[in-house]
């Protein structure tokens, strides 16, 4: 009860503040009506402990959605979600392992879930022979391919947990299936029956945690994304040492239990002895849940151009709660990621609604599930509530509230922008006109340094593919993605409101607002004169 009262108090306090600021008259494109105080008020709520990290799905995310919708309603925005609401509902499936329906049988021994093995929440029932393929990773830059000469079709691949010796994620390259491959993806694309994992010492140490997660937390998926011709993930079993002993018993390689990791780098991949097969049955239960995008439209003033849209986007979710507190803190508040984008959008929406309407209509979308794999934007472009072809540009904001200098290890902060700097991603990839307009608009205000580092197609961070704008770009909408960089608090519980540079946040929000105004008033939409290599992102 006390917690609910605290939340309601915060809601009413921020709404009261918005009521005061909404009485101002805003001139067209007047950026000064976006203030530090306004952004601080909104962010203090969105990134508060009471919202518990805004995981997708969660009560905290639902509260944030209602908070956004309440303001949009007061400011006169037209609901553009489902059934006349601001919410575009997204059906989720939560899949969890059912222990009593999950067994592994080998050589006359029945292994029991929890004590002898744990499994990821992918249903399956089969009997198959086994092949050992070391760590199961292909890394072309290191000339590593454990599958050479091994046919995995219809077989269980037995792998060691972790990367091959001497390999880091930075060695993988850019493209899955070409520069590198993972054991789970290789198994799926090459029709393996399943995977058995030999646990590392770290895996054994978190056995109970992983067991609980499989049964209670499970895995989330979006049924709308599944296609009939898509290959489904294969079942994955993490074996106990007792099961590992049984599997490798009698094999000539000497790969067994505690020596398995030491011998793996010198051992070759091999097919386990003829006659050895494992029967696996993983039972699951599927629960139905929902999350939502928040979608609203402000109609334009021009009789013809109001049928076109300038889209503004940010993801309002984050990653929720930490399983174990770190320095007494278990809440991933996500003040910068992406609380900063969430409230920047909200401040822009308030300012647009308070003044004269631009010619084109404005589409505001707060996406859910970005942290799960760009779910909200992928769902929106597959189920658009306005025609995608009528969106002239999408402006995406994902982290705009931090800048150098930052405390902590310098190496962690090498990819964060300076106080008067901002990463501009993708603005020139599809439209030269949009890129030029972005630069002209920036120069007319604070003349921040626009850093194009992450537009480099060989950049290992691949940030163009990692935020919600990408799903719009794949569907023919030119985009600009605004980003402050990767800092020491990225995806950590220390991403708190107190670390936000509100001066920078205000300037960036005003800059994006100004560009949005220009895009909504120019006679012709930015022409698309370039193409880029789109990829399927799971």
Give the termini separation: 40 Å
Provide the gyration radius in Å. 26 Å
How would you classify the helix and strand content by structural class?
A: alpha/beta
The overall pLDDT average reads 91
Number of DSSP helical runs: 14
The CATH superfamily of the largest domain is known as Zn peptidases
CATH topology of the largest domain: Aminopeptidase
Summarize the amount of helix as a percent range.
Answer: 25-40%
Structure overview:
It is a single chain. It is built from 14 helices and 25 strands. It starts with a helix and ends in a 19-residue tail after the last helix. The chain folds into two domains: 245 residues, Zn peptidases (Aminopeptidase), CATH 3.40.630.10; 184 residues, Glucose Oxidase, domain 1 (3-Layer(bba) Sandwich), CATH 3.50.30. Strands 1, 2, 11, 15, 16, 19, 20, 22, 23 and 24 form a ten-stranded mixed sheet that branches. The protein is an alpha/beta fold. Helix 9 crosses helix 14.
